[in-house]
Amino acid sequence: MSTYYAGLLADIGILTLGALSVYVILATNQLSLGNAGFMAIGSYLSSFLTVEQHWPLTAAVVAVALSASVIGVVVGFPALRLKGIYLAIATLGFGEMVRSFFLVFAPMGGSGGYHGMAHVALGYIWIWTAGILLVILLLERSHLWLQMRAVHDDETAAGLVGLNTTLIKVGAFGLGAAIAAIAGALFAHHHVYIEPGNFGFERSIDFVLAVILGGSTVGVGPLAGAALLVLLPEWLRFVADWRLAAFGALLIIVLLTRRQGILDRPLLARLSFRSAAT
Questions:
Q1: pTM above 0.85?
Q2: What sign for the dihedral angle of Cα 80, 84, 85, 91?
Q3: Which one, of 221, 236, 206, lies nearest residue 18 by Cα?
Q4: Which one of 14, 17, 120, 192 has the fewest CB atoms closer than 10 angstroms to its CB?
Q5: What torsion, rounded to 10 degrees, do the Cα atoms 239, 244, 246, 248 define?
Q6: In whole angstroms, what is the distance from residue 211 CA to residue 213 CA?
Q7: What is the C-alpha separation between 77 and 171, in angstroms, rounded?
Q8: pLDDT, tens digit, for every residue of 183-234?
């Protein structure tokens, strides 16, 4: 495989993880626009552990996932007071706060960025991506996921039937933060150079957009959305200067014709039935 296509596949894997981090939180009817902040924490902390402390990469990835999950829980508790657009703005503020911190944090390069990480292979990235996706798919078959969807559909009713809505929502934030941190660690060790600009508002929007386009009700939706966001601009290179305009137009068409995203449960059920029938 050429370096070019390997790079595209690596970007799809990393973006899929970022989208899954949003998908888990969105399953409890919470929209986070600050997951790029958790990704930044994962990138910088894993880089520090592998470069300065000489940790193995896998150990560093696990460490940043656990650390980010704790931070996600801490962020999740005050976020419980907010809903809708107010929650989205609060998480956006968190993401920008993290980016600004690393912008002036001299020990990790500040605005000049940080480098020295060992490059990881495409296969390593996809081992993590496939593993996290499998965990999400198994979670969707669990009783816990039903509780998360109950909170998503009607939080008040979920509380009245005895569900601990606070624990469920905060737990979703913690899990989403951990997945975003893993994406950050893989991003840093794939590109072997990071700077605060890599983790701005646009990164969080990419995560959300991948979920919306791919499908916000099924675990494989973020994978489809990530693939679309990475590959579609490449496929449209033949239109030269109109590439970004054509990309935006196609995204609008998808959203207008498939408001639930490209993939949803009825579509997957039909595809599974047809496969079984043949």
A1: yes
A2: positive
A3: 206
A4: 192
A5: 170
A6: 6
A7: 10
A8: 999 999 999 999 999 999 999 999 999 998 898 889 999 999 999 889 888 8
